[in-house]
C-alpha cells in the first residue's frame, strides 16, 4: 500500500472520528438543554401554590409536585405506584376514585369541590382533572390540579348563613323559610304525604314596644323564639318571618296533630310568661296541605286567615283553617 493511500485512510478515519464526536457532542448538548428545561419546569411546578399530580390509567400516582409531596409526606420515589387510599380517609377516596374513573372513561375534563373532613381539620379543595395522552395520542393517565379553597368555602358558608338567618334570634328568616316550604310542598304532593304550617304572632306587641321600649321588645321576641325552639321536633323548620311573627313548618303532620302541637306551644308560652314583665301571650293560625292546593302560598294564606281568627276571638288562642 502506498504512503498516499495510508495517509488518505488515516484522514478518512480522523474525519469519521471528528464527525462522530460532533454528532455525539450535539446529542449531548441537546440532552443537556432538555434536562435543563425539565429541571426548570420541575422548579416552576414545585413553586406553584397548587397540588399538581399525574396518575396512570390504574389511578396510581406517577408524579406530584413538591406541595403535594409535602402534603402526603413522601418523596417522589416513594409516591410512585401509590394511590389515594394511602393518603385520604375512605369517604374521600371513594369520591376521588369516582372522579378519576369519570375522567379516564369519558376522556373529558372534570372539576369538583372536595371536602376532606377529618377530626383534626376541615380542608376544601377545588380539583380539575383531565386526561393525559402520549405523543402517539394514547391515553396514559390523567393530570390533576387541586387548589385549597377552604377560606373561600368558610366565607361562602358564613354569607349563606347570614343571608338565611335572622340576626336577632338566629332562626331561619322568611326567605329561607319560604324556600324550605316550597321544597316541602313539592315533596309532600309528590309522595302524597301530609304537612302542616303554624303561624305564630305575639299579641299586642306594639304595646310592649310603646310601654317598655324596643330593647325590651327585642328580648320578648327572643323569649318567644326560645319557647318555640324547645317545642319543635328535629324535622320541623322554625323561622322568624316578620317583626313579631314566627312560623313552623311541620312535615308529616296532619291538621289534628298540628293543632295539638300549637295548643301545647301557646300554653307553654303563657306559663313561661306568668312571672315575666311584660307578660305576653301568642296567637296561632294552623293550616294543612289539601289535595287541591297548587302552591305553598295557598296553605300560607289559610294559616294567616286562621291567625286572624285567633286575634278576632280575643287573642291567646289557636285556630285552624
Ligand atoms: N322590638 C321590636 N319590635 C318590632 C320588631 N319588628 C316589628 N316590631 C314591632 O312590632 C309591632 C307590631 O305591632 P302590630 O302589627 O300593630 O301588632 P300587635 O301590637 O302585636 O297587635 P296584634 O298582632 O293585633 O295582637 C310594631 O310596633 C313594630 O314596630 C323588632 O324586631 N323588634
From TrEMBL:
CDD domains: GGDEF, PAS. Keywords: Membrane, Transmembrane, Transmembrane helix. InterPro entries: Diguanylate_Cyclase, GGDEF_dom, Nucleotide_cyclase, PAS, PAS-like_dom_sf, PAS_4, Rev_trsase/Diguanyl_cyclase. Gene3D superfamilies: 3.30.70.270, PAS domain. One of its GO terms (cellular component) is plasma membrane. Pfam families: GGDEF, PAS_4. Its EC number is 2.7.7.65. It is an enzyme of class 2 (transferase). This is diguanylate cyclase. It comes from Shewanella frigidimarina (strain NCIMB 400).
Amino acid at each position: 500500500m502506498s504512503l498516499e493511500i495510508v495517509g488518505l485512510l488515516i484522514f478518512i478515519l480522523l474525519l469519521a472520528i471528528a464527525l462522530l464526536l460532533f454528532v455525539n457532542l450535539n446529542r449531548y448538548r441537546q440532552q443537556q438543554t432538555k434536562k435543563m428545561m425539565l429541571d426548570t419546569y420541575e422548579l416552576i411546578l414545585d413553586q406553584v401554590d397548587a397540588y399538581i399530580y399525574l396518575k396512570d390509567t390504574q389511578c396510581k400516582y406517577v408524579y406530584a409536585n413538591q406541595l403535594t409531596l409535602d402534603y402526603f409526606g413522601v418523596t417522589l420515589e416513594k409516591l410512585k405506584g401509590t394511590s389515594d387510599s394511602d393518603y385520604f380517609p375512605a369517604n374521600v377516596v371513594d369520591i376521588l376514585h369516582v372522579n378519576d374513573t369519570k375522567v379516564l372513561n369519558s376522556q373529558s375534563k372534570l372539576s369538583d369541590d372536595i371536602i376532606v373532613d377529618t377530626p383534626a381539620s376541615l380542608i376544601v379543595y377545588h380539583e380539575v382533572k383531565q386526561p393525559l395522552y402520549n405523543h402517539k395520542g394514547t391515553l396514559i393517565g390523567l393530570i390533576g390540579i387541586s387548589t385549597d379553597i377552604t377560606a373561600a368555602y368558610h366565607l361562602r358558608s358564613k354569607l349563606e348563613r347570614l343571608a338565611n338567618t335572622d340576626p336577632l334570634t338566629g332562626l331561619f328568616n322568611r326567605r329561607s323559610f319560604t324556600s324550605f316550604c316550597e321544597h316541602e310542598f313539592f315533596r309532600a304532593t309528590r309522595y302524597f304525604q301530609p304537612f302542616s304550617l303554624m303561624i305564630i304572632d305575639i299579641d299586642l306587641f306594639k304595646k310592649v314596644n310603646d310601654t317598655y321600649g324596643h330593647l325590651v321588645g327585642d328580648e320578648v321576641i327572643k323569649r318567644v323564639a326560645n319557647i318555640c325552639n324547645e317545642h319543635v321536633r328535629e324535622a320541623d323548620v322554625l323561622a322568624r318571618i316578620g317583626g313579631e311573627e314566627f312560623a313552623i313548618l311541620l312535615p308529616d303532620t296532619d291538621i289534628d296533630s298540628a293543632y295539638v302541637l300549637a295548643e301545647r306551644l301557646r300554653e307553654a308560652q303563657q306559663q313561661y310568661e306568668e312571672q315575666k314583665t311584660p307578660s305576653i301571650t301568642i296567637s296561632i293560625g294552623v293550616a294543612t296541605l289539601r289535595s287541591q292546593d297548587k302552591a305553598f302560598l295557598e296553605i300560607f294564606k289559610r294559616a294567616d286567615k286562621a291567625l286572624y281568627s285567633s286575634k278576632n276571638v280575643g287573642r291567646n288562642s289557636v285556630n285552624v283553617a
